[in-house]
C-alpha cells in the first residue's frame, strides 16, 4: 500500500465524525484522495498549483480551530512555501500537518527540480516543527492517527513508492519514543540509523550480518527522541544513512541529539553528494552510483573500525 | 454610527497618540500607519466590523497584511477596552505586549504579520471556514499596494474568487510609495483596478482619507454580496506635513524638536 493512501484513508475515516478537518491539495492526487473528495467535498479544497497561497489559506483555517492537512509533492511543498510555513504554522504555532510525497530521489528520473534532497534540513530549521519519516504504510497510519488526535505543526515525509512492511512492526508503544531498535545492542556492533526507504537498506544489511550490526528506524527525527542516545551509546559507532544532500541531513540531527546529552560516539554520514543529479537510470541506479548502495554503507564501517 | 466630525477627531487623536509613541520608541512605520488610519477608524467606529459588547470581542475579522502598520489598531483596541491601558502606557518604557509589528497574542489583533503577501490567503482560509460552517462573519484584509508585487497575493485572489468568498473584502492601501520610491517608477503596478477586475473581482475606488466617502464605499461593498476589492487612494504619512508623500517616512527618521512641535500642532 502506498504511504499516501494509508495516511489519507485515516483522515477519511475520521471525517465521518469530525467535520473540522480540511484537506488541501496543490494538485497532487492519490487513490484514497479520490474517495475523500467524493465523500467529503465540503472538507476538500483544491488550492490550484499555488503552494504559497495554500499554506496561507491553511493558516487561516487553523486560526479558526480547524484541523488542517496540506498535501503536495515534496519538492514543491517543502521549499516553495517555506516562508509561509514559517510565518503561519511556525510563528503562530498553528496545528498544520504537511503531507509531503516523494522525498529523496523518489521522482527519478525527473531530475533535480523534482528531487527533494534538501527538504529535511529546511524543515528541521523551522522552530516548532515535528518531522516524521515513516518506513512503511503501517507506521504511516500511526502517524496519521496521532496527527488527527493531537494536531500539531508537523511535516510528514512520505515515499513516492510502495515500501515493504517492516517486521517486527512499529507499535503504539514504539511510536511515542520516536524510534525502534532492530537487533541486540552491543558494544561490538555498529548502529545503522535511518528512516524511510533508506531504513530498508539498513535492515537488509543487519539481517545479513546481525552479529556486526543493529539498526534503528528513527521515524520521528524532530523532536529528537530523547531516549535514543543513552539507549545505544554503548555501540561501537554509528552510520547514519540518508537520501539527502550532505548538509543538515539526518546525521546532523543525530550528532546534535547525542551531543546535547554529552555523548559523542563516532558518527559516519552516508548521504548523497553535494551536487544535483541529472542522469537517468532510476532511483536505485542513482543511489548505487552516488554512495548509497548496501556495499557503500558496509564499506563505511572501515572508518569506524 | 458616529458623526463625521467625531470620526475625524478620533483619527486625529489616534495619529497623535501613535506619533508620541513613535517619538519615544524611535522606530516604527508612521507613514504606513497614517495612510490607513482613516480606513480602520471607519471600519471599527462605524460598525462595519461588529463588536459584541457582552463578550467584548469582535464578530468580524480584520487582518492587517501590511504588518508594519498594525500599530494603527492599538489605540482603537484600547478604546474598545481590549488592550489594557497599562499595556499601552508601558509600550516604549518597560515590558509591554505591544510590538512594532502586530501579532495575534495582542488582544484584538487577529493575525501575526510583517512579511508581505500573506494576508489575503490567511483571510481566505478564515472566510471559507466561516462559509462552510454557516457562521455569519466577515473578513476584511488590508494590504499595501506593495504587496501586489507578491505572487501569493494573486494566488490567494484566484482562490477567493473561485470559492466565491462573499464574506471577504480586500482593501488596498494605495499610497503610491514603497521604500525606494514611487511604485510607478520602481516597478509599475498600474492599472491596478484593471488587473484585479480582470480576475472577475468587483472593485470599488475610494479616497482613503475622506470619511464620508469611506462610509459610503463600505456600505456599497456590504451590499454587493460578493467578493470585492476596495482600492483606497491614500497619502503616506497623512496628517503630518513633513511626512506626507515622503518615502523616507516609511521608517522612523531623526526629527528635530521644532518638527516635533510642528507635528503636534498639526495633530491637535
- Global outline of chain A: globular
Distance between the termini of chain A: 39 Å
Structural domain tally of chain A: 2
Largest β sheet strand count, sense and barrel closure of chain B: 5 strands, parallel
DSSP strand (E) fraction of chain A? 15-25%
| Architecture per CATH nomenclature, i.e. the level-2 architecture of the largest domain in chain A | 3-Layer(aba) Sandwich
SSE series of chain A = HEHEHEHHEHEHEHEEHEEHEHEHHH
Low-confidence stretches of chain A: none
Which structural traits does this protein have?
heterodimer; A: 305 residues; alpha/beta; Rossmann fold; 2 domains; seven-stranded mixed beta sheet; five-stranded mixed beta sheet; 14 helices; B: 268 residues; five-stranded parallel beta sheet; two-stranded antiparallel sheet; 10 helices; 9 strands; globular
Write a structural description.
Chain A is an alpha/beta fold. Chain A folds into two domains: 3-158, Thiamin diphosphate (ThDP)-binding fold, Pyr/PP domains (Rossmann fold); 179-304, Rossmann fold (3-Layer(aba) Sandwich). Chain A contains 14 helices and twelve strands. Chain A has helices at residues 3-15, 31-39, 51-63, 74-78, 82-90, 119-125, 137-149, 172-177, 196-208, 228-232, 250-259, 283-289, 294-299, 301-304; strands spanning 21-25, 44-46, 67-73, 96-101, 130-132, 154-158, 180-182, 190-194, 213-217, 220-222, 237-241, 267-270. In chain A, strands 2-1-3-4-6-5-10 form a seven-stranded mixed beta sheet, with helices on both faces. In chain A, strands 7-9-8-11-12 form a five-stranded mixed beta sheet, sandwiched between helices. Chain A is globular. The model of chain A has no long low-confidence stretch (mean pLDDT 97). Chain B has a single domain (4-266), classed as Thiamin diphosphate (ThDP)-binding fold, Pyr/PP domains (Rossmann fold). In chain B, 41% of the residues lie in helices and 14% in strands. Chain B contains ten helices and nine strands. In chain B, β4, α6 and β5 form a beta-alpha-beta unit. The A-B interface holds A 22, 42, 45, 47-48, 50, 52-64, 66, 83-84, 87-88, 91-92 and B 103-104, 110-115, 117-130, 132, 151-152, 155-156, 158-159, 162-163.
